[in-house]
Amino acid sequence: MSRSKQAQIRSEKIGFIFQNFNLIPRLTVIENVALPLVYKGVGKVKRLEQASESLKQFHLGEREFICRGNFRVVKRNVWQLLELL
After folding, report:
1. For residues 44 and 75, what is the distance between their CA atoms, to the nearest angstrom?
2. Model-level pTM greater than 0.70?
3. Coil, strand or helix: which one is 67?
């Protein structure tokens, strides 16, 4: 099987469970939520729209653009949200 086919299978069929989840500090909350969609090939606008809708479902819409040290407030809820994407 080619490397590109292996990569496709990993990105579409295999999930990961992290023991310790950390958000990327230089990204905003919405960018962190949208990040997994990059690997699925979803375009930037669509990624951000989906991430925004997901954040609103968890009552985190007003925190989309929080960055860096403020993550402690939303980290647990964002982790739960990422499990659903």
Report:
1. 22
2. no
3. strand
Q: The dihedral of CA 23, 24, 27, 33: what is its sign?
A: negative
Residue found under tokens 């590109």 = 4
For residues 15 and 30, what is the distance between their CA atoms, to the nearest angstrom? 20
Residue type, 60: L
Rounded CA gap, 77 and 11, in Å?
23
Tens-digit pLDDT profile for residues 12-36: 787 665 555 667 878 888 898 898 8
- pLDDT tens sequence across 51-77: 999 989 988 888 787 775 555 545 556
Token couple for 54: 């997901």
